[in-house]
Write a structure and sequence with these properties.
By secondary structure, the chain is α/β, with parallel strands linked by helices. Helix content is 37%, strand content 12%. The chain contains 10 helices and 8 strands. The chain has an 8-stranded parallel β-sheet. Helix 8 links the parallel strand 7 and strand 8. Helix 6 packs parallel to helix 7 and helix 7 packs parallel to helix 8. This is Amidohydrolase family protein.
């Protein structure tokens, strides 16, 4: 993490009484491999990361509750996450996984709700970013699954590549009864990439009232070694203009964020990037939006 954060952020400033980290993960490689963790750049993630590891860091950053989000698309992971949530007050909600293309998706959601910790299930997510189809979200079988998610009173988290944002706009327009939560602002081009339409696509999604977005995963979209808050600010400004604070929520993306910064630093830079907002607006970003959307 560059030294600019410590130079520009006062960690002793008052923070909201309740702060919700709306996006974090855990995994145990002895239970299940995380096949996406490959190559030398991700080597520091090939360890176990547990709630016991996160708890002291969350306390030090004045984070009171978190939303635990799925990492891989296997049916065993979500029951494990729900059991963790049932046993640990740090986890206020779980965004899990189920096979949206299954004809029995409604039954699968009901079964998850019946498990220990099932009352903590607040959303469903699929690794759309790993699908080759740009329009995977628009498949009829996926649409039936999304309808079941809506009927269950759950939100749907979108994790996708920037070029898949137009399909997210289309599906959110088709499913006005379902709240869509865009993870990581749709992976904005913080590191220079090919010309893209991220800002326009984000604005198109934000025009739909059943959408919100997470200020999460931004430090790892920037240069992992040289990034500064100034690199992130233009993209946060675009998101604030598009969604407004009442439809944005902060998420750390721990432990993936540790590729670029530790937990306290990510929380601190998040607070710095919304420091110019009113107290009410900052509270929305750091607690209110997540609490409302996920029913925490």
């Amino acid at each position: 993490m560059p030294s600019t954060l410590s130079e520009t952020t006062d960690l002793t400033e008052p923070v909201p009484v309740t702060t919700i980290d709306a996006h974090q993960h855990v995994w145990d490689l002895s239970v299940r491999d995380q096949e996406w963790i490959t190559g030398p750049e991700l080597a520091s993630l090939r360890y176990n990361f547990t709630l016991d590891d996160l708890r002291p860091q969350a306390a030090a950053a004045s984070v009171d509750a978190t939303v635990l989000v799925q990492t891989i698309c296997v049916r065993e992971e979500t029951p494990e996450y729900l059991a963790l949530a049932a046993a640990d007050p740090l986890v206020a909600g779980v965004v899990g996984w189920t096979d949206l293309t299954s004809p029995a998706v409604a039954d699968a959601l009901a079964a998850l709700r019946a498990l220990p910790g099932g009352d903590r299930l607040v959303g469903i997510r699929h690794q759309v970013q790993g699908e080759d189809e740009a329009n995977w979200l628009l498949r009829p079988d996926v649409g039936r699954g999304l309808a079941a998610v809506a009927s269950a009173g759950l939100a749907y988290d979108l994790v996708l590549r920037p070029e898949q944002l137009p399909s997210a706009v289309a599906v959110a327009r088709q499913r006005p009864e379902l709240t869509f939560v865009l993870d990581h602002l749709g992976q904005p081009p913080i590191r220079p990439r090919r010309p893209d339409t991220w800002a326009a696509d984000l604005a198109a999604l934000a025009r739909l009232p059943n959408t919100v977005a997470k200020l999460s995963g931004l430090v790892t979209e920037a240069d992992l070694h040289t990034w500064s808050p100034a690199d992130l600010r233009p993209f946060v400004s675009v998101a604030l203009e598009a969604f407004g604070p009442e439809r944005l929520m902060f998420g750390s993306d721990w432990p993936v964020c540790t590729l670029a910064a530790d937990y306290e630093q990510v929380v601190a830079v998040g607070r710095e990037l919304v420091a110019d907002l009113s107290e009410h607006e900052r509270t929305a970003v750091f607690a209110g939006t997540a609490a409302r959307v996920y029913g925490l």
